[in-house]
Amino acid sequence: MEDSLTKAKTLIEALPYIRAFANQTVVIKYGGHAMVDEELKKNFALDIILMQYIGINPVVVHGGGPQINRFLEKMRITPSYVQGMRVTDGETMDVVEMVLVGKVNKEIVSLINYHGGRAVGLSGRDGELIQAEKMQIMKEQVEDAPPELIDLGRVGRVVAVDTEVLESLEARGFIPVIAPVGVGKDGQAYNINADLVAGAVAAKLKAAKLILLTDVKGVLDREGNLISSILAGEVADYISSGVVSGGMIPKVSCCREAVTGGVGKAHIIDGRKEHAILLEMFTRSGVGTEITLLP
Fold it and tell me: Lowest-pLDDT range, 10-14, 28-32, 132-136, 204-208?
């Protein structure tokens, strides 16, 4: 009886959040350990399906770095990174597109459909969903040295998002699952960081929430303690001070861009925690780090 009462209280706690997010869009970046562990994969699919059943419109953007690395290893190609971005030459781009679009995307779609959802896989090339251009980044400047560009190859940045195909799928009750490959004006494919794609899609859709699944609790301070909330205006200071570094830089940056672009809140949460998405969406305390425009 006590267990049943606890479940009932949990449902009552979730009610105001269910009401608040009804008919709203939530963009989820799916990545990390949650894409590998079989139980977490199942939990992810069920969380997404539940969200849709109660009237929320989920949009999934996925990564696939470990899967790409495994394939590159078989081809004896050593991956390299600069400022958290994968350096992508032509040969690597072929592998990236093959793995992300041809393998990982289809596996996620099948996972959601197997557990009772209705998902459709997309590449950023489909319907020119993700329009991209070559990303330019600067090398860390040494005193008295001129600025120097770093060539990342076929690494892109999002220029525009055409959401027509997403809106059509949502209107028909499908869950869009997006592989982070963009298309340039020249028709070439570009490898784009999945966090950045998720942020751009969320901003274009004016999503209520952007949720990034990671393999850490969230943003941690120098002592390893969780920082529960960050204002968009504080992000640059966290990066320059080194509190946010490496692969966390694009995550926090995309959250900042998302909330300044019209997303209600952005969250970086631990995808290793069971039902982390539901805990963030439907409980008072939430989990991980939230990035907001205003206090």
Answer: 10-14
